[in-house]
Fold this protein.
Amino acid sequence: MKTYPLHKFIKRVLVIRLSIATAVIAVVVGLITYGVQHVQLEQQVSDLGRRGVLTLAEKVRFVMMWQETDAVTALRHVLGKGDPPVIYRAGRFVYVQIYDNGSKILAEQAADQPDINEIRAFMSDRPFSFPSQGQDEILMTSINKTPFVFITSVLENRRGNAQIFARGMFAVSPQELRTMRRAMVRNSLIAIAIVVAVSALLYPVILRLTRRLADYSTHLLDANLETLSVLGSAIAKRDSDTDAHNFRVTLYSTRIGEALGLSLSQMRTLIKGSFLHDVGKLGIPDNILLKPARLDPKEFTVMKTHVEKGVDIVQRSSWLYEGTEVVGYHHEKYGGGGYPHGLKGEDIPNAARIFAVSDVFDALTSQRPYKKPLTFEETMKIVEADRGIHFDPEVIDAFRKIARELYDRYAGHEGEDIRNELATVVMKYFSAGIETLYY
C-alpha cells in the first residue's frame, strides 16, 4: 500500500478522494431523487386521470338527476356535446369510451387531437376490463413522446349497480409537464447541493481532527524521547558521572549511518540503541561497575550480563524495543568471539556493527580512570587493525572517510554544545507533527 506524508495526504489525496466520493454520492442521490420524483410525477398524472373519471361520473349523475334518466342516456348526453367531457388546467380527456359488462360500447367521444389515430389504435389494442369500485386500472404510456394516462373505472347507475364502465386517455398539458419536470430537476439539484455542502463542511472538521492527532503525536514523541534520555543518562552518570559518552557515541553512530545511507527507520533504530546501549549496567553492582582498575575474569563475567539485563529493560517498551538491535548485540565481533551469542558477520544486526565502531572509537579517545585518551592516529591504527576481526569492513570504510572530522569535532567534548547538537539530530529523525506523520 502506498504511503503519503500526512500533510500531503490532507492537501492532495484527501481532497481528491473527498471530491470523488462527493461526486459519486451526489450523482447517486441525484439519480435516486430524480427517480423518486419521476414516480411522484407518474402518481400526479395518474391522480389527474382518476379525478377526470370522477368528474365525468359527477356530470353523469347530475344529468341523471336533472333529467331523471338512466346512466346510458346521461352518458350520451354528456359525451354528445362535442367538447371534451373533462378539462383541467393540468390536462384533459382526449378519448373516452363507455361500455357495459358485456363489452358493448354504449358511447364514446374523441377530441380534436393531432395524434388521435394513434390513440384510437392504442385503445383498440387494449382488452376491455371490468374493475370493481375503487380498483381503477391506471397505466402510464407515451404516444409520439407525449405522456398519456390510460384509465379504466366503474360508473355506478342510480341504484348503485356497477354495470357501466368508462375508459379513456388523459393527456397532461405541456405547461403542467414542464412545471412537474422543473420541480423534479430542482429537487434533484437541491439534494446534490446538500451532499456537496455536507462534504465541504466535513473537510475542515477532518483537517482539525488530523491536526489534533498530529499534536497528540508530538506530545507522545516528546514523552518517549524524554524516557530515552532519562534511561540513557541514568546509566551514563552512574557509570562515569557524565552522560557525554552517550551523546558522543550517538553522534558518531548517526554520522556513520548517514554515510552508509541508512533509511529513516534504520536511523531511528540506531539512535535509540546507541543512547541505551549500556542501560543494562543499572543492574551491575557498584563494586564492579565503578572499579577503577581492570576487572578480573569473575568480575568481567558479571559485567557481561549487562547485555541481557539491558535487553530485558528495553523490550518492555514497544517504542524502545527497536533499540534491542544495539543493546543486545553491541559486544558481538564481526569475526566472532564476542558476547553474549558469539555471532559473526551479517548475523549481527547492522545497527550493532555500526555502533561497535562508535563505542570503541569513543573509548579510545576518551579519558578513563585507568587510561589517558589516545591520539587520532593511535586510535585509527587500532581500529584499522581490527577491520574484519572486531569491525565490519564496510562500516570501517565509511567511517574512515569521516573519522578525522568526527575526532576534531567531538572527541573528549562535553557540555551543552554536544547536548544541543544531539538534540538537533534527534529532531531531524524523530520530529513529529503533521509534516512528518504518514498515512
